[in-house]
Amino acid sequence: MCQLLIYDLICCHSSQKWDYCAESQTSGRIPCKHQTFKVVSYPTPAEFEPAPICHRSECHFNRLDGVWNCCWCGKTHNTTGRCSGGMMYYEYTTCDHICCPFCKRGDQGF
Ligand SMILES: [Zn+2]
Ligand SMILES: [Zn+2]
Ligand SMILES: [Zn+2]
Ligand SMILES: [Zn+2]
């Protein structure tokens, strides 16, 4: 049975990868009739490593080399696609801003 793995990536995009069964391996990497899919959420479990790399040209997280400062709340050195900064807004919440064109590159090593 072939399985389409849908990875949630660190940058908040998703990427797909086929896990081919023996039957389709021999027939030239075309998924067989018995297909299933699975969503692999981030962080990627060890058995699903390596996660594919995000190839989207609009991926700002990749463009900033994975370290960025949030343009919303000012949190610096985010290392995942979604801002982890805390905000007081009626109650304490996390910012959850996804890296966008207005966010700036963060410095590594802090
Ligand atoms: Zn198969
Ligand atoms: Zn991405
Ligand atoms: Zn933020
Ligand atoms: Zn932003």
Q: DSSP helix count?
A: 2
The biggest beta sheet reads:
3 strands, mixed
Task: Estimate the global geometry from the Cα principal axes.
Answer: elongated
Q: Provide the structure class.
A: mainly beta
Q: N- to C-terminal separation?
A: 46 Å
Instruction: Average the pLDDT over all residues and give the rounded result.
Output: 92
- Provide the number of structural domains: 2
Run of helices and strands: EEHEHEEEE
Small molecules (ligands, ions, cofactors) in the structure: zinc ion
Strand content: 25-35%
Beta-strand segment tally = 7
Order of strands across the widest beta sheet? Answer: 2-1-3
- Segments where pLDDT lies below 50 for 5+ residues? none
Helical content class: under 10%
Write down the Rg: 18 Å
What features would you describe in this structure?
There is one protein chain. This protein has 110 residues and is mainly β. The chain has two domains: 47 residues, no CATH class; 54 residues, no CATH class. The chain contains two helices and seven strands, in the order E-E-H-E-H-E-E-E-E. The chain has a three-stranded mixed β-sheet with strand order 2-1-3, with no helix packed on it. The longest helix is centred in the N-terminal third of the chain and has 5 residues. The protein is elongated. 13% of the residues are buried. The model has no long low-confidence stretch (mean pLDDT 92). It binds zinc ion (ZN) (4 copies). One zinc ion binds next to helix 1.
